[in-house]
User: Fold this.
Amino acid sequence: MKLKYKLSKSTFIRGLQCEKSLYLYKHFYRLKDPVPAEQKAKFVQGNIIGLLAQQLFPGGVDASPNDYYKIAEAVETTKKLIYNNESIIYEATFCFNGILAAVDILVKDDDGWKAYEVKSSTKVTETYLKDAAIQYYTIINSGIELKDISVIHINNKYVRNNELEIQKLFSIESVHDQVLEYLTIIPNEINRLNYVIDSDKVPGIDIGPHCNNPYDCDFKGVCWKHIPDYSIFDISRLKTKKKFELYKKGILTLNQIDTDNNFLNKKQLLQVKSEIEGLSHINKKEIKNFTSGLNYPLYFLDFETIGPAVPIFENTKPYQQIVFQYSLHIKKQSNSKILHKEYLADPTQDPRTMFVEQLIKDCNTYGDILVYNIGFERGKLNDLIEYFPQFSYELRQIIGRLKDLMIPFQKRWYYTPQMKGSYSIKYVLPALVPDLSYDTLNIKDGGTASNTFLAMVNGTFEGDYGKTREQLLEYCALDSYAMVKILQKLYEI
Ligand code: SF4
Assistant:
């Protein structure tokens, strides 16, 4: 049977965010931006969590078709399963008033039917309520009397000990009452969105804060193409509202901004003026204070982490950042050769044990340890103290020796127009040391490094294992070597 539906749960949510996004999705799908690797990794994680949550209600029957494009078949399967008195159905799918909605888990107990939607996040958001409302609407109008509807989400208080405890990993939160509040607006919203889809022209909606709220829209390649690569949207820490205030006045580039009013703060003003005048700002006195306070031997340290939603290792929480790799460059004296030490964990074991032992050995007992963004490395070292109290003395010593190389750039003691308002090492490095670049690397950022190693841990990694480990080492090594070169530049000043 060919089912007619115009909206699915996800296109309904898309339409609530932006009518133009819905229209483009329906009529110009090919214009959609490519899915970023990070998003793909989230999908994989979402699937893993969805399957785990099914274990809360074991023994169910899956109504989803083998082929995603035949999703409408799931409606017939669901009907049959309900008719056959199945009491636990995964991916139960319903269609009403042109809306197709699948619910992750549908359960019939002594009270009656209850629906459960699984989310990878750690709390219920406004969008999840709307999402649940459209499900509730579709299910009850398909003739199922729902007694309750809940969101199953990750419990971020859970700490794993030995075996994974599914009941503790998840929290089940009824959203029935909030959903009822939304229910009254659903039919009107469906009519509005159907009208959008049936229209013969693209809705005339301009870009705005809605492009990133609640989700990053995947049609920015279409709508944002008139925004220059470097624009008012790159002004550091300028509120979204203020950015669009400028945009509405037709201001797109930094040189169009009036720098005489009090619209920007001091740092933002520096960014804009530096761009307009093409000049760098260098506070030699502060830089000298910073560099003369450093004590040799100098260590340049960088960590990489994974943050699995489902805790894999003992004594870890959902989404906890766990160290799996470091790179350490060492300079004993200002004119001595640079030494390099590194660690990359075996993905089949808890990465922290060897990490901590080797790190303590490699860091020795004296000399400053430079990191870029101290909060991150310090936080991870404190986590390690909690897990390895036997090493707390050594790890505390390391924490006490940390110094933050980000400070001169964060405080704008050194700012060049090439930094484009950012003090991230990914901007600072090419501005100061143009011949050293991440561009030539296969793994260019921490997110990719993290997703790659996590895939190795989860057993979902596809590719050349040996080569990829080399690439991970290369990436992390550049992060710490970049600090060596950046500091050298500061000394030169
Ligand atoms: S980029 Fe913005 S304006 Fe364009 S479709 Fe997406 S949300 Fe709508």
Notes: The CA atoms of residues 104 and 380 lie 35 Å apart.
